[in-house]
């Protein structure tokens, strides 16, 4: 494979096209005359000019320089890189889903609304909440939506002094960021030696200014917060609300529901647990579920069913308003709904059981060669530390890069931030035991290389189309677009 | 239970449990306290086999009027444009759609380069120096532009023209409430922002002024005049733009905009009942380090080989946490890819030609309607949308149109009480002369 990949602009030659529009079939007008001078564009945008085959070769070449779940194992912790079913891709492209305008009259989109309504009901069942909105576009967007609802709830109670949102030190970065965007101040609660929220520290930070506690359960270490009901009591007694970050829902479907644990608001990442897919970073979908006392604050419009017909209810005086135009990332929701129907209730439960089994199996296979910071069973993912290897001069980053030589996407590294040199591994339920074994064998071999031949790890990767990139220069002297030499 | 997505066999399970040192999978769930364990079966709809799913979803799909079988004159922010076939062939390559965010550049060069190319195309179209790798959609991008402006100017007042998309204004309101910013809406006059009223509102507390170009009514806002008013008060000038229109119209970047946002849906992304589409976010170089979301930069590896990486990440939530410029994490990468492919397929000349055909076909439709005695309102220059007034509710007219295979335009009375019985008509390059003539005949007959 050639190591250099031209930019599409570098392939461009005047007059080449990959698509032809029909000739104009209405009377022509001279736009240079018709458009007022100030609106008449003079500088042409430098867009590429290539033939259709050149275009396909270009993007095919790019795709070959990219690793997806279909290319190989992708145990990226916290991201749930499971198989993306092909039937979902087909269904989402049906004309009545893909080519429907969001502002058509409601009577012309009843099938789309039925799908949305059913999906909402299914998500209510999985989470144990009372109502779900599909409007948020992604997880972080759902977090912010949920926090805005919590704020509206407190303010409706005349409670304007609840300015703080508590997040664990192991939380996803989006949690504190969403708190800020929703107008709160983020406060950190520490983890204890078991990797769980320190209840004493929680009691210390909770008080009358607490708006909410945001929590992932299982947490980002892959551990179940066993004292969740005690935590819920502490927060509720102080007048706060409990927010569930659904990034790790793949661990507990059919085993436990956030609604039963005492959570008041939940977001789900349909691109994770419900096979989205991830799309190279998006689009996702981040529905939010709430308990009954927060229903009045749901974003509007709210989808309602009356006499076997569906309509949007805009008359929601206490709603936080819109968080997104139209009704959310419908196309992703079609895929998630297809997935849920393909699994059924028993299937979803089996998904979580297998995901947890796979993670525990890998954790035990790897625990001796690395440092296992927390001894207990994990849920769908686990964290190991490369502390031992670091002493030999091999960092976790090096081991991650070495995994590339074997055709794997590395685990999440250096997150959560409370474990030194960590690797966060999430196999998911769609991987076979053979794949898990092969990956563990390679990681054990790399641990051995760190002892016997550290250079090979430190200098990795050796087989990729490009070596380690100079990120410092990229940030100091940013080149963010192509410019003709 | 056996399932095609679940490869673990009974034998595998037995061996794995042995390695773990437990007797059953249930033992791994013992850390969930008894009181909150879920017992029984989830009340999720029953499982469907693939063939059953296809039948059921086909049935639901067929209950929706689609824009392939009907001629759509509905726009209002989402448009029926030609989508080159190659777009779907590229985004269906699973190396793209089954990948995550390109945090490991050595095995993500494809995605990184494709989005670097996307950033370049958006910079070119908008006339801005820097574009990010995408936002959820145009309206949330516009709301984020408001937050950026407030952060940059340390001022709390956002001015939005009422000619900005009503749903975008609703989204801006929600985001502004989050940050305790005030939003002031400015009325329109003859379909564009009322400059006198705008001038009265802009003051030393103004963080930014937001306008849409072409605006919600399809009209072209007088950007040069607005720019002067905005910058006289040292506020930021934020323009939301349909990127296709910029294939023919002077880009906001050449008219003094500080931030240009919008939605790439017109390039290669089907309407999909409102999402996912693809927001873009472009700024001047000065604001480069304040941009929300991911940026791709060019660099080299240790051998001097050109490569691409996520860069300036110190702005982002996974590094900066509560001090991040935005909480955005997932974006719309796959749709940014779709738009890049569409722009590449159309090419420099094709984008211009497509934009021109939109103007020309809208011009033809408007002229024909006027000839047929239909009242058109607002007399400014437009892109591919214009407003007509009819006698009677738009909902009824649209019902009648649908029986002829036409999806009618947007009922402006929903958002503007003074525009009851007014329809926003969109005419893209996809509408044939025959379809336009039929629309004119039906609407003309109903006037």
Share of helix of chain A, binned: 25-40%
CATH topology of the domain at 87-342 in chain A: Aspartate Aminotransferase, domain 2
Q: Main β-sheet of chain B, in a few words?
A: 7 strands, mixed
Going by CATH, the architecture of the domain at 87-342 in chain A would be 3-Layer(aba) Sandwich
Radius of gyration of chain A: 25 Å
User: How much helicity do the residues of chain B have?
Assistant: 25-40%
Globally, the shape of chain B reads globular
Distance between the termini of chain A: 26 Å
CATH class term of the domain at 87-342 in chain A: Alpha Beta
Could you give a short description of this structure?
Chain A has about 475 residues and is an alpha/beta fold. Chain A has helices at about 30-35, 50-65, 85-90, 95-100, 110-125, 140-155, 175-180, 200-205, 230-235, 260, 330-365, 385-390, 395-405, 435-450, 455-460, 470-475; strands at about 130-135, 165-170, 185-190, 210-215, 240-245, 265-270, 290, 300-305, 310-315, 380-385, 410-415, 420-425. Among the domains of chain A are: about 10-65, no CATH class; about 85-340, Aspartate Aminotransferase, domain 2.
What does this structure look like?
Chain A is 36% helix and 11% strand. Chain A is built from 16 helices and 12 strands. Chain A has helices at 31-34, 52-64, 86-92, 95-98, 110-127, 139-156, 174-181, 199-205, 228-237, 258-261, 330-366, 387-391, 396-404, 433-452, 454-458, 471-476, and strands spanning 131-133, 164-168, 185-189, 210-215, 241-246, 265-268, 288-290, 302-306, 309-313, 382-385, 412-413, 422-425. The longest helix of chain A is centred in the C-terminal third of the chain and has 37 residues, at 330-366. The model of chain A has no long low-confidence stretch (mean pLDDT 97). Chain B is an alpha/beta fold and 447 residues long. In chain B, 37% of the residues lie in helices and 16% in strands. Chain B starts with 9 loop residues before the first helix and ends with a helix. Classes of the chains: A alpha/beta (485), B alpha/beta (447). At the A-B interface, helix 2, helix 3, helix 4, helix 5 and helix 6 of A face helix 1, helix 2, helix 3, helix 4 and helix 5 of B.
């Amino acid at each position: 494979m050639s190591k250099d990949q031209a930019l599409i602009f570098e392939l461009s030659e005047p007059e080449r096209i990959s698509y032809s529009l029909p000739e104009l079939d209405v009377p022509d007008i001279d736009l240079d005359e018709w458009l007022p001078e100030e609106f008449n564009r003079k500088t042409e945008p430098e867009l590429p000019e290539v033939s259709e085959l050149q275009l396909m070769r270009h993007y095919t070449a790019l795709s070959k320089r990219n690793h997806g779940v279909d290319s190989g194992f992708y145990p990226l912790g916290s991201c749930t890189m499971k198989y993306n079913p092909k039937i979902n891709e087909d269904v989402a492209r049906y004309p009545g889903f893909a080519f429907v305008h969001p502002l058509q009259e409601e009577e012309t989109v009843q099938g789309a609304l039925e799908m949305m309504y059913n999906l909402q009901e299914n998500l209510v069942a999985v989470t144990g909440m009372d109502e779900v909105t599909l409007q948020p576009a992604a997880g972080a967007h759902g977090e912010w939506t949920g926090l805005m609802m919590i704020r509206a709830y407190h303010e409706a109670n005349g409670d304007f002094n609840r300015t703080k949102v508590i997040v664990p030190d192991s939380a996803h970065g989006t949690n504190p960021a969403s708190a800020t965007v929703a107008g709160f101040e983020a406060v950190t609660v520490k983890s204890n030696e078991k990797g769980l929220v320190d209840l004493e520290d929680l009691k210390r930070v909770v008080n009358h200014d607490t708006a909410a506690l945001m929590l992932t359960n299982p947490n980002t270490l892959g551990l179940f917060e066993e004292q969740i009901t005690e935590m819920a009591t502490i927060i509720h007694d102080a007048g706060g609300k409990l927010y569930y970050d659904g990034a790790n829902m793949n661990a507990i479907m059919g085993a436990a529901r956030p609604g039963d644990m005492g959570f008041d608001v939940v977001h789900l990442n349909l691109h994770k647990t419900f096979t989205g897919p991830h799309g190279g970073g998006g689009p996702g979908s981040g529905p939010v579920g709430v308990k009954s006392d927060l229903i009045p604050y749901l974003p509007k419009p709210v989808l309602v069913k009356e006499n076997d017909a569906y309509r949007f209810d805009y008359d929601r005086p206490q709603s936080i308003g819109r968080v997104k135009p139209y009704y959310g990332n419908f196309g992703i929701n079609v895929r998630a709904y297809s997935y849920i129907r393909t699994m059924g209730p028993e299937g979803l439960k089996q998904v979580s059981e297998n995901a947890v089994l796979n993670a525990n199996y890998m954790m035990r296979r790897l625990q001796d060669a690395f440092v296992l910071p927390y001894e207990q069973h994990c849920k769908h993912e686990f964290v190991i530390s490369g502390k031992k290897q670091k002493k030999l001069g091999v960092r976790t980053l090096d081991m991650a890069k070495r995994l590339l030589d074997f055709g794997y996407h590395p685990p999440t590294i250096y997150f959560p931030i409370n474990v030194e040199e960590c690797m966060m591994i999430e196999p998911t339920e769609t991987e076979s035991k053979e794949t898990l074994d092969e990956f563990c064998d390679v990681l054990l071999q790399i641990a051995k290389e760190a002892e016997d031949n550290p250079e090979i790890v430190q200098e990795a990767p050796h087989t990729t189309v490009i070596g380690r990139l100079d990120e410092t220069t990229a940030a100091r002297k940013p080149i963010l677009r192509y410019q003709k030499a | 239970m056996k399932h095609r997505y679940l490869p673990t066999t009974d034998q595998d399970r037995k061996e794995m449990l042995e390695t773990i040192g437990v007797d059953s999978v249930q033992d791994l769930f013992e850390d969930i306290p008894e009181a909150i364990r879920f017992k029984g079966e989830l009340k999720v709809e029953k499982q469907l086999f693939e063939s059953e799913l296809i039948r059921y979803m086909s049935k639901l799909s067929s209950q929706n009027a689609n824009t392939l079988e009907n001629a759509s004159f509905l726009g209002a922010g989402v448009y029926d444009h030609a989508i080159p076939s190659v777009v779907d062939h590229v985004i269906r390559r699973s190396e793209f759609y089954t990948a995550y965010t390109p945090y490991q550049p050595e095995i993500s060069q494809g995605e990184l380069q494709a989005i670097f190319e996307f950033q370049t195309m958006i910079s070119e179209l908008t006339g801005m120096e820097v574009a990010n790798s995408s936002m959820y959609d145009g309206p949330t991008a516009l709301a984020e532009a408001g937050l950026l402006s407030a952060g940059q100017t340390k001022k709390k007042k956002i001015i939005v023209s009422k000619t900005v998309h009503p749903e975008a204004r609703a989204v801006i309101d929600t985001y502004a409430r989050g940050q305790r910013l005030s939003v002031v809406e400015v009325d329109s006059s003859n379909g564009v922002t009322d400059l006198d009223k705008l001038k009265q509102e802009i003051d030393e507390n103004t963080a930014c002024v937001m306008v849409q170009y072409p605006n919600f009514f399809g009209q072209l806002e007088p950007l040069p005049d607005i720019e002067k008013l905005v910058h006289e008060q040292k506020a930021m000038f934020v323009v939301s733009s349909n990127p296709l229109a910029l294939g023919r119209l002077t880009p906001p970047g050449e008219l003094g905009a500080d931030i240009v946002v919008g939605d790439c849906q017109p390039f290669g992304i089907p309407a999909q009942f409102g999402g996912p589409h693809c927001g873009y976010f472009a700024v001047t170089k000065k604001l480069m380090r304040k941009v929300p979301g991911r940026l791709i930069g060019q660099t080299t590896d240790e051998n001097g080989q050109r490569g691409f990486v996520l860069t300036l990440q110190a702005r982002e939530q996974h590094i900066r946490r509560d001090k991040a410029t935005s909480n955005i994490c997932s974006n719309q990468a796959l749709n940014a890819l779709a738009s890049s492919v569409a722009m590449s397929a159309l090419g420099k000349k094709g984008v211009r030609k497509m934009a021109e055909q939109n103007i020309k076909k809208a011009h033809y439709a408007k002229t024909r309607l006027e000839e047929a005695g239909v009242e058109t309102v607002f007399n400014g220059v437009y892109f591919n949308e214009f407003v007509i007034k009819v006698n009677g509710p738009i909902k009824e007219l649209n019902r009648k149109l649908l029986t002829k295979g036409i999806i009618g335009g947007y009922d402006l009375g929903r958002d503007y009480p003074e525009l009851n019985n007014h329809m926003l008509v969109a005419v893209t390059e996809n509408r044939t002369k025959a379809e336009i003539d039929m629309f004119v005949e039906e609407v003309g007959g109903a006037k």
